[in-house]
Amino acid sequence: MYFFDVRDGNPNGDPDAGNLPRVDAETGMGLVTDVCLKRKVRNYVQVAKGCAEGFDIFVKEKAVLNNLIDASYDIPTVKEKKDEGDKREAARSVMCQKYYDVRTFGAVMSTGKNAGQVRGPIQLTFARSIDPITSMEHSITRMAVATDAESKKQSGDNRTMGRKSTVPYGLYVCHGFISANLAKQTGFNADDLSIFWEALKNMFDNDRSAARGLMSAQKLIVFRHDSELGNAPANKLFDLVKVEKNPETVARSFADYKITIDRNSLPTGITIEEIL
């Protein structure tokens, strides 16, 4: 369970709704997509590792994915394969070895020369706010115009008006899952997991934007199973974590919440790590 918050910012705008903060229309709870969070992880790994061998990023800005897939077929271990199925599996293995995000989150790589599909060992849910959020809109002023035509329309000065949407405060929680069996298939290892935890702790500090306000990682709770197949259902473990808000205040900081873990009800074979 990964807790993060936003103050006076837009954590994940919806382009189909004028870039307003995403919200559950029925409950008013704020939403942040898994794609948004994985993007931040990718960006952090790209900066932290500098696209070093084994830590390149497949889905990154300005990448032409088919070209990257096709390049895997130029590797000698792939070229030497005669059967198309063998070539595809060899190319898939090359892509997993080369790209951190492929072996972590998976990828569909059948759009080029076909390197198959990879189901990643790490899967994330949408993050959902603990309480309903309030989406606020603010008028902003720009002391300039973009074109001569706009300038001629203005009377007096060159001011143009705009709007900015923010959430005054919201605490969000995302649930994640790591499959040991899928990790074996993609080559995801302990070092990869270590940098993933590092990314969750630090990625907001490397992704600052005026539009996103103050976003901060607040808590990361990990349930470790003794068995590869799991020692307890994930939902039962998540239920052990309780979040309570101070009823006497309007939440405006993480200090207005209290997170507790019922360790006495922890099933056999499960250990808890509070990484953050």
Low-pLDDT runs: none
Question: Kindly state the mean pLDDT as a whole number?
Answer: 92
Radius of gyration: 23 Å
Oligomer: single chain
- What is the structural class? alpha+beta
Instruction: Give me the strand/helix succession.
Output: EEEEHHHHHEEEEEHEEHHEHEEE
Distance between the termini: 11 Å
Shape: flat
How many separate helices?
9
Got a strand count? Answer: 15
Please state roughly what percent of the residues sit in beta strands, choosing from under 5%, 5-15%, 15-25%, 25-35%, 35-45% or over 45%. Answer: 25-35%
How would you characterize the largest beta sheet? 7 strands, antiparallel
Level of helix content?
A: 25-40%
Descriptive keywords:
276 residues, alpha+beta, two-stranded antiparallel sheet, 9 helices, 15 strands, 29% helix, 30% strand, Cas7_Csh2/Csh2, CRISPR-assoc_prot_Cas7/Csd2
